[in-house]
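Data card: per-record layout.
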Amino acid sequence: MNRIEHPIPPVYNQDSKILILGSFPSVKSRKGGFFYHHPQNRFWRVISQVFSQPLPQSIDDKRRMLLDLKLALWDVIQSCEIEGSADSSIKNVIPNDLTQILDAADIRQIVCNGGTSHRLYMKYIYPKTGIIPLKLPSTSPANAACSLDKLVLAWSQLRQYL
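The structure for this 162-residue chain is written out next.
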């Protein structure tokens, strides 16, 4: 397995209030150059429905929607060894340093998109930040047992932090 560096910079600005963390970009996201680029990932549909926004189409639209909603977006992992897009294959993690975001913005809540993100956050980042994250169900197509309606209901908790 080769070590892969995270190729996508974080999305945030000084107005960001919620930091959403995935685990590591999928192959599609790495090739596409932006978060949740796989068409079967429900992240953009969930955020759009939770905040009653039109579904963004372009990367610029997605970035603009996040910033307008005061959402920051990044991943727990800076680099790792991974086979394809399988979170279960992740090894030899080097975590991202969240300092740049936490210093620039008044983050009221950190949210982990799924169990892998949460587990890795608790192992590598929580000891440094002391910030307890909110664990929400993964928007990944691998979490097919969770319907879009259930995801929207769970992710609606984000509204309370804005």
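Known properties of this structure: The chain has a mean pLDDT of 96. The domain at 3-161 is CATH 3.40.470.10 (Uracil-DNA Glycosylase, subunit E).

See the next section for split statistics.
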